[in-house]
Design goal:
The protein is mainly alpha-helical and about 100 residues long. Helices cover about 60% and strands about 10% of the residues. A hairpin with a 4-residue loop joins strand 1 and strand 2.
């Protein structure tokens, strides 16, 4: 267990959580693929994710990208980011009008 813990000791999980919320929201809103590049999450996290050290991710496209191991996690993170950014029910209604 110590070896596994040491392998991810330098990951700032609160920062990663916030970054993934914002990134998931941006990709969801833009209709982009949910794959994540090295530039989007930083070299240290990407390296661990692509080698299977962070079980939250899985490598895709030959290890050139990663994605969250279950795509529903991306939807959840996007929803949390959106909910935190909306100031009122009225604002939420305006933002979502005409969207499925």
């Amino acid at each position: 267990i110590k070896k596994a813990t040491d392998a991810i000791a330098d990951v700032d999980f609160p920062m990663l959580y916030n970054d993934l919320r914002e990134l998931s929201y941006k990709k969801h809103e833009g209709g982009e693929a949910r794959i994540i590049s090295r530039d989007e999450i930083g070299e240290s996290v990407f390296s661990k994710a692509s080698r299977g050290r962070l079980k939250l991710f899985e490598p895709v496209q030959g290890g050139e990208f990663v994605q969250l191991y279950h795509l529903r996690i991306s939807e959840f993170l996007a929803a949390v980011h959106w909910a935190d950014s909306v100031t009122s029910v009225a604002a939420a209604s305006i933002q979502t009008e005409g969207k499925p």
